[in-house]
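To assess whether the prediction recovers the assembly geometry, we first specified each molecular entity separately, as shown.
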Amino acid sequence: MTTQQLVKQILKKKSFLCIGLDVDLNKIPQHLLKEEDPIFAFNKAIIDATHHLCVAYKPNTAFYEAYGLKGWKALEKTINYLNNNYPELFTIADAKRGDIGNTSSMYAKAFFEDLGFDSVTVAPYMGKDSVEPFLAFKNKHTILLALTSNVGAYDFQTKNIEGIELYKTVIETSKSYNNSENLMYVVGATKAEFLIEIRQMIPDSFLLVPGVGAQGGSLEDVCKYGITKNIGLLINSSRGIIYASNGENFASEASLKALELQTQMELILKQLL
Amino acid sequence: MTTQQLVKQILKKKSFLCIGLDVDLNKIPQHLLKEEDPIFAFNKAIIDATHHLCVAYKPNTAFYEAYGLKGWKALEKTINYLNNNYPELFTIADAKRGDIGNTSSMYAKAFFEDLGFDSVTVAPYMGKDSVEPFLAFKNKHTILLALTSNVGAYDFQTKNIEGIELYKTVIETSKSYNNSENLMYVVGATKAEFLIEIRQMIPDSFLLVPGVGAQGGSLEDVCKYGITKNIGLLINSSRGIIYASNGENFASEASLKALELQTQMELILKQLL
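The predicted structure of the complete assembly is given in tokenized form:
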């Protein structure tokens, strides 16, 4: 998917919501456990109930790998279901991969070719040759970890590296990578005020923003400091939406939570455009 | 597996060799492609031919994920085969994972519980709360990326962060993590001279050292600067061993390459002990 197609979808749906599909069998409605594939059954119901309110879905691979082969199968079924039924939706494999060049190529192949995701999150610690193999794929997007939403972000990311914070060094350096136009960045909603300086460095790049909801980030603050003329934001909510209820009505309750966020986003877009 | 059991195995086998199982279907002997599961057939033959010469196996998950469901299945069969037939061998999931706390817990569950690996490699960029969930598992080991073997290591890892290089900050900080006795570290063989200062910080920790062979690192230099009284090194070779031949004799040729390295290690141990 091209960035233009993503922007078009945002303007049409009046939403820049991304829904995180982090499926934990201990948290989903217990009646689903009778299904042949409870993880996929859960995702399918959530997707069918919310696809008109969001522009992206983001399964975090950890939650699938934890269930081994059946988890990986559920991930494959979920991305296939999205690509076959809702091809306009942007898909993110939240995998936080990254390795030496020939190995990163294999990860890129896994997520872009084998599974067919539009994008994958990548960790920057191993530098340029660990990221560029992902960037080589046309109309696929590499979402680089810059400033994450967790407390541990202060351990290294915000530390000064030769006079400039590490996360800024990561962003600045990445702009010179081959095919850097395929880059997006992860910036946690819990650190909205950091967006002022981040936008000076990357005024147009799309940002994937986790941390609204369960982690305490504010949608208003993120938009105030991070929104661009092409919107440039994908705001992720996982637990706050998909676990709104664990009864039979889980999908419709999830849809109500998604509608709440979409309504706030529509208001923000109205003020902006 | 405990560290003591690993050391005991090293002394018994006179080897601290780790073999990387990075299986690429384009590189394995073509006659194996007729097998029902060529990846596992290749691994099984390599393991059977080399298990007495090495103390650890390290499948890199990228090479399995690239083949989707059948790749993950081959990974599962490989670790099961190792655990059932050669339980004395140390197993490493080279996965370079790391995410916010509750997500890292799922990755730990995936590799330690579901698959049953002894250890997993973890990227440090997201800080303490992304690493500690792995450390919570008793007799399991978390191998933190410190200084990697690739060129991109110079992009961030060797840069000064408030007066000290980032990779040293990572090592120093990690020593205060809960259950830090379960930590090992990745240090690339291509940067052997860095081991002098690394050993001042972590005199006893085990290091996983990739980059001998195809990437150009020297076994002698790594041992000169990195070996400890408990050896403290796992030297990895992947391509140099497993792709020694792509004919029918691939397993015996791999075994010869492993023997070469084991012989050098035996000599080094003899001088040391």
